[in-house]
Amino acid sequence: MASYTESIPAGGEGKVSLRVRTANYGGNLIVKHATVYTNDPDNTTISLVITGKVEKVAEIVPRQVLISGPAGAAIQKVVRITPEEKYAFAVTNVMTQSGKYIDAKIEKTTYRGRPSYNLVVTNKMGKPGNYIDYIYVATDSKVEPRLRIRVRGTIFAPSGK
Q1: pLDDT band with cut points at 50, 70 and 90 for residue 26
Q2: pLDDT digits (tens, 9 = 90+) for 95-126
Q3: What angle do CA 113, 119, 121 make, to 5 degrees?
Q4: pLDDT at 40
């Protein structure tokens, strides 16, 4: 999202403000480019580059849940959510977007001596097919009040059928 001074007199100054969405970049370097177009014949465009390391609020492993298996089998996956010490939080609720094909529950635990959570995802789809759903983990964090985790399911016919 950008905002800027629309009209700047010759020799004057203006302001360009850019807002960068950093979701899913935690712990990584982010590089974003923006172009400013002007009516100055000597400088028709100005390139801006924004770089910085995005701090991680929590370690989420795996970041996406992949559920695969035969219809009728009990299929569960576990996602470990460990808040970073600087951004310690408690999980207050967990819910699925649709809930049609998965259940999700949260279990408090520790990981490497730090408070952590296991998000247990259980397949509910009883017939062959594919699905996508999301799990929303509510926290008491002001920085990251909600974590979103994508779930992809591929359920196939049991062998011999």
Answers
A1: confident
A2: 999 999 999 999 999 999 999 999 999 999 99
A3: 150
A4: 86
Torsion of CA 69, 72, 74, 76, to 10 degrees: 50
Residue 81 pairs with which residues in a beta bridge? Answer: 60, 117
Give the Cα separation of 109 and 78 in Å (integer): 12
Write out the DSSP string of 35-101.
EEE-S-TT-SEEEEEEEEEPPPSEEEESSEEEEEEETTS--EEEEEEEE-GGG---EEEEEESS-SS
Kindly tell me if the per-residue pLDDT of 23 is higher than 80: no
Phi first, then psi: give them for residue 86, nearest 5 degrees: -65, -30
Ordered by where they begin, the domains of the chain are: 2-53 (no CATH), 58-156 (2.60.40.10)
